[in-house]
Specification:
Length: 71
């Protein structure tokens, strides 16, 4: 399905209307508005936990071990 080509004249009746400002809802702060568009991470802290686990694993692997000698 092809979209019809739009022309500025299609919006001539609304182009010069004033910007609507809600009387019911206060304007959102720029910080909150930016937060809506920030990347979402469902697993917050996952990378930090994986890094800690890897560090523990590396430390355990690199730690000197006692070798059991046969009697």
């Amino acid at each position: 399905m092809q979209r019809p080509n739009r022309d500025i004249r299609d919006y001539a009746d609304i182009i010069n209307l004033p910007h609507h400002i809600s009387e019911r809802h206060p304007p959102m702060s720029l910080r909150d508005r930016a937060g809506q568009f920030a990347p979402f991470s469902a697993l917050t802290g996952l990378h930090a936990a994986a890094d800690r686990a890897a560090a523990r694993s590396d430390a355990a692997f690199d730690a000197p071990r006692e070798i059991d000698e046969p009697c």
